[in-house]
Batch of 2 targets.
Target 1
Amino acid sequence: MAAQAQQETAVGSDHDSVRDREISVEQEHLDRVYRRLEEKIHEAEFLMNDAAKRGQVGTPGALAERDAQVFRAGIHLNRLNNEFEDFLFGRIDLLLGKDGKKGPDGAYTAVEPAEGAVRDDGTADIAETLHIGRIGVLDSEYAPLVIDWRAPAAAPFYRSTPVDPGRVVRRRVIRSKGRRVLGVEDDLMRPELKAFLDGGELAVIGDGALMAALGQARSHTMRDIVASIQAEQDLVIRAPAASVTYVEGGPGTGKTAVALHRAAYLLYQDRRRYSGGILIVSPTPLLVAYTEGVLPSLGEEGQVAIRAIGSLVDGAEATLYDSPSTARAKGSYRMLRVLRKAARGALELGPAGMLGGADGSGTGAGGGSASGSGASGADASGAGAGGADASGTGTGGANGTRSGRSAGNGTGSEMSGAEASGTGVGGANGTRSGRSAGNGTGSEMSGADASGSEAGEAEASGSGTSGADASGTGTSGAYGTRSGRSGANGAGAGNGSGVGTAAANGRGSGTAPASSGSASATAPTQLSFGDDGDGESPAAPAPVGPPTRLRVVAFGRRLELEAAELERIRRNALGGTAPVNLLRPRARKLLLDALWAQSGAATRHTDPELAAELRSSFDEDVTSEDSFIAFLDAWWPELTPRAVLAAMADERRLGRWARRILNPGEVRRVARSLRRDGHSVHDIAMLDELQAILGTPARPRKKRELDPLDQLTGLEELMPVREESQRERAERLAQERTEYAHVIVDEAQDLTPMQWRMVGRRGRHATWTVVGDPAQSSWSDPDEAAEARDEALGTRPRRRFELTVNYRNPAEIAELAAKVLALAMPGSKAPSAVRSTGVEPRFTVVQKSLGETVRAEAARLLDLVDGTVGVVVAMQRREEAARWLAGLGERVVALGSLEAKGLEYDATVVVSPAEIADESPAGLRVLYVALTRATQQLTVVSADRDQPDGSGVPDLLRD
Ligand SMILES: Nc1ncnc2c1ncn2[C@@H]1O[C@H](COP(=O)(O)OP(=O)(O)OP(=O)(O)O)[C@@H](O)[C@H]1O
């Protein structure tokens, strides 16, 4: 480790006056830096004004130049203003180097001292002094006033140790606020030397910056460690970005801090290369919130996205937890095979909306509206030049589609499945209501009505040039068809089946106002952690099949494909592993082939050219038929990941798809968990996998709309809007970004195989930094996860690093945690704590009630520390624990054991170690995490199951 040579004494006659003198030396330097910064700000402002003037010229060339200048100057100004707070924090005093070469930052590049830099009598002169800050500043002669912390010349500030000091004699951390220097802390790297600076002996002040930083009270946000990065950490931060940088280290060794500083370093090193974005994957939203201020404090924003593993899929957010056994099934590789089967199997269930959720869309020149609601699924769409209405409600599934020129209505309401569609130039109505399945279609040039209502099955269709009515009612089956040139009525009613035909005359037309589609859905209640385990599942939604018959009229003939033929075509189209949604054109082609074969037209021409022409007009004829379009939509719907996931909520169905992959208990638990309202982190990885399995069909590109701002020339008009649109564009690009140039995975030990696949897709061409600690893994099968990690990282070579020093926990707490480590991962080495506080962990047992005891302990710690207190409980207790602490203020928080990952507090209360350890197969490792969160004080509260001894020490923490 970077052992600090902490010189506790000040060299000089009076300790305070030496300190004051050293502070005033640094103040003088800071004043010079500020004067220079002010000059730079004026320059930046001048650039902005100049750019504004050029903008008024209005030629395209001047506009482009102005935009570039405004952009550059804006960034510059913004950075300067931002960096004004505490941006100068370090200084190194160096011996003369081996050669006299200078780098681009104006500093000498030699790492080792020149021969003779140290005289035989052990004295030496300081040949170079460098100040280190958050950005680099040169004076007007291009000499370095401040070196950027990421520049090569700053490396000795972090790398130098008493064992390997290089040229550094003294390393100083400067504390300042705004323009005022508050203090200095020195570490002497060559304590054996008597060094002179400008003729005077080098002064050494304070205990060293590291200790000062570690002793500070914690808030709810992480601080950067830029002033006290240690040598072994610096090696990781500055490791070349090739391939994979792999970092392991115990709790508190600075893995998260190092990962964040590395992101800033990489951007500094090669901004162009990382314009592709850096993604930092964090285990929880709490850790994202805790860490997200660090990069801006290092002067980096915009190009780095910090996202929780449950927020990687746009439009979805993990809000629920799975029980450990459900998580194990969902996160393992086995789930991949289940999802592949589900994606193909879901096609057979009919339109996507039937599978769960609700979809509604309405389009039309005149108007269209659509609504769908259902416990398990509803789909409704309306399209029309005039107006179209479609609504579907159902427990199982309901579908209503309408398309027409002037007006149309389609409704379906069903216990298990109903379909209603109407198409017409004039107007068409299709209504269906029934107990198990029904179809109602109306297709008309001017008006058609079709309705069927049935306990068993009903079908009604009406078609005519002018108007047609068809209705069928019956207990088990009824059939009513109407077709005619003008108008027709047909009804069939009966117990078994009824068929009626008629023909009549009529005419209809309609117009409707424009409106857009809407959809709403209600879903079952949410279950919390552990509740998705055993017990009765809520009623499973009944499956609804896709259409089982295709009927079209082409070349004057009625053609029909029956269920068996359709099934054969589907199987044929699904062959191979191509994404399901991309196979629709292939399925469509196979349908047309089958219809073409049935039409007998193939034999009409022997001339290949004429035959091809005939075939293409046949295809055109069929594919322009509304009934064909509607059929294809229902028979090969575009599947969404959410729809397939919702389909898996049906236990019977999931059982089919997971046969011989998941056991019945797992099927029950997974299906049950998927019926909750919301997603877990594991569901998010499943959604992402499904997106890859299903694919996204190519959509016709939207025409770029003309931007009226392109025509403007005056900067006054342009600036605010321009800036806004630039930012918007950057945000949009960041949102649309699905792949990154560098991916950093924090707490990598926790990623499940399915999560590794999800993260892997975001860094297929990236370089990687992976930081983690196997001893803190909450995933039950670390070997399987390691395999998945290796697959995600591919064959890229790994550079491995180990961090060995615990900067968070005092030795007293680290020692206690090491006992659990020995149980959780026998043989693994705990990191060594860098400091000790002399305060032993406190043990207590439940007094009146668990809640009251914990509350009293938390209140006690709040009195003892200035910063935060964390109360860590088993996951199933976290809501209860929040109630125990009500009213104690913002400095204290209740956390489930899994939520505590990566966080830290001044003091912690760990509640019932046995309960935490018993909660999952990885429980001991989770307990190890819980015990290593405190920077100052730890209290352990034991309940009965902890079997505390006479001093309150629980069984798990005894020697
Ligand atoms: N060089 C340093 N100077 C000052 N503070 C440091 C240094 N290194 C680490 N720390 C502090 O130590 C604490 C632990 O760091 P961090 O959270 O990055 O560790 P970690 O290895 O990610 O821990 P865990 O595995 O438990 O999540 C933080 O408060 C961090 O600021």
Note: Residues 1-13, 352-543, 702-727 have pLDDT under 50 and may be disordered.
Target 2
Amino acid sequence: MENKLCCKIGPSILNSDLSQLYNESQRLLDSGADYLHLDVMDGAFVPNLTIGHPVVKCLRNKLPNTMFETHMMVQNPIQWISPMADASVDQYTFHIEPCNDVRLVCRKIREAGMKVGLAIKPGTSVLCVEEYIEEADMILVMTVEPGFGGQQFMTNMMPKIEWLREKYPTLDIEVDGGVGPNTIDMCAKAGANMIVSGTAVIQAENPPQVIKLLKESVNKHLNIK
Ligand SMILES: O=C(CO)[C@@H](O)[C@H](O)COP(=O)(O)O
């Protein structure tokens, strides 16, 4: 049977020069990025503030054809569905931890015309997302505590990815946090096919080379499976 999974690299713009958000985004796309991972933080779910839907909408106006994933590190994910849909976001990824009714949020995201991503923090068991797999297009396994770029990759999150890949061979699995040339092989081997990389790409001397390396590692392991 044909493996429908494909490798996608989505740089996180969190640690870029945000005064140059469009130029930085374009630079990443020109370097081979498949999509943009836009980190939205509300200062409540995580101890940091970043961009919101007005900025995402402005960026969308400049980049009409780019896949946008918003990683919603927010306390009340249902609140931002409509504004993000209005900003033509493609995929709305939210954390299940603060959510009272995950199914309702998933349904509202779909009704608003976006894909659904479910994210789990390092301390959250992968079993907690299992009951919602049918509602999701993608599961995001965090390999740092959400809130800041440039943190150390948590190797001990790999069993979560392995478990998901074993049970759901065609599921999109994204990994985020401390991912770069030194850690990509672990993610790829575990079964991640959507790769978020912030600092490693943004601060690289040669971003196209880093993105190529990330892709090669994932594709190598996708072909083995
Ligand atoms: O969501 C987050 C952090 O909360 C991530 O998207 C990071 O911002 C990725 O940056 P690096 O860890 O790759 O520097």
Note: The longest strand covers residues 35-41.
